[in-house]
Amino acid sequence: MGDSAPVQKRSSRAGGAFGFSPLETRGLLALAATVAVIAGVQSWADRAQPVAPPATVVELTTAPSGESRLGNDSPIDVSATAEIEYDHRTDVNNANRNQLMRLPGIGEVLADRIIASREKDGPFRSLRDLQRVFGIGPKKAAMLGGWVRFGEIGPEAVAGEADE
Per-residue pLDDT tens for 30-49? Predict the structure, then answer.
């Protein structure tokens, strides 16, 4: 018993990537794949839900003294400042292809279909009218509700399409 050569123990970490055993390597790969899948699903979910449109009215308020100050000591009279109204919505009757493609859920194909329908059948008057475009159903029309408006078609629409 005393004369036998010592048995050399083989390390369970030998031979694996970065010193990990094959079992540890598979576990790390599975963990990395799970994280990648979760990140991809989250990214897809974020793209599928459009951000709410910004507010349309900007109001300036005054301090209790009735005066606001800008910078060091330069007073500004905010009571003389009118409310600024901005209509952030896209006018589908005057928008060119690129402007339509900025709308959530509208790509190249739908933008082209909207323009073709507008030229063939006349201007859109409502979200219901917009549903005459193949690919825009009640759900997509409802999603576009806060993003679009329906103005009169004008010459700037034709000029804007030439600028594409």
Answer: 989 998 888 887 777 666 55
Residue 83's Cα: distance from chain center in Å?
28
The position carrying tokens 């004008």 is 154
Asked whether the whole model's pTM tops 0.70, one would answer: no
DSSP-derived 3-state class of residue 21: coil
For residue 63, give both structure tokens: 């301090």
CA distance 137 to 127: 10
Closest CA to 98 of 139, 137, 90: 90
CA 138 – CA 107 distance, rounded (Å):
17
* 84-85/148-149 β-pairing: unpaired
